[in-house]
Here is the input.
Amino acid sequence: MATEHFLNPCEALGVERYESLRNVLSESLQSASRTSDAVVNELSIAEFSEKEFKDLQFEHARTGEQWAYLRLTSGNYVAVDQVPHSFDPENIAAAVIFPAIHSRLVAWWLVHNWRIQEFMECAASSLLDDWNPSVSAVSARGLLEQVGCLFYEVSIVEEAWREAKALPSDNRESRIHARFNPLLFQLAFASRGLPTSQALRPATNVQTYVDKLARFTDDERYHAWYNWLSNAAHPAVGSRIVYATQPLVHKHSRLMRRRFSRLPTSIRQNCDVGLTVVHNAADATVELYRISSHLLDFGLRIVDDFCLTTASANLTTGSSWRQLVPVRGNRLCPCGNGKWRSCGHRWGAAAPTLPKPRRES
Here is the structure.
């Protein structure tokens, strides 16, 4: 009779993989604490006709509300509230356009950050603390999809901001509105198969995210991880492979044996039997933590560069997370990347460029 041996998480994962995953969980929890209480009031502005503009202006005059209005090159108008009572009238266009775009960029970054953190912590803790391999595999798959989506979207935002930052001053605000307003709407609103969403664009297929992330990182492991984790997430397939050992086939090939167990087990303390899905979930989570940190740091650089280049924090009385106020000279820049003079938060300067991540050996 074979001797049963139930493995603890360190035995099941191996010491090196266990320690790497434990470090990821610890660092992820620390990172999450920095944004857990972040709040942003996203402001979206829609265009309205000249008649609607006159009606709105009359209403605001009657109620005494402080609003700023901007006539676009299309002949339509846009307007925002929460405008400072004393600011340069020449900045009206900037006050209408830039704080709204900044609020939407902050919201875009935060939801990616929060969702990545949740998947990351669930994928890691489900192996380290509770031993829920199905939950870990499904969470790791969701993490891979989310990081792929972040890369796909951050590339779009990077290109849009690079073009916008190079624009001449003539009619700059209206042109940035025309570029960013539809782009951010597309990133914020999409659906897959909902009956009430005919007006929304179809959400991008997640396989596209995985493919682009694999090309960006030059790492084909993403495809292998995604295939294993997708199988583990399938209700029929997953229930057969997550809790089973690899099949043991008799030498005459007419008898096969598989052992099923809720907890990781081995025969004669052979710790490499039947843990392929678990090892893929752990390895993917560790690597995705590294890549997601790289992408989130870069995405936040774009958000901060937009805020400081446009000085949007000075153009509204509203408040939100990451509302940075420009400084001058050799003072430390609010973005945290050095001194103001060298950080390049000015029109015509180079926008941040996403570097290739270095692959760890």
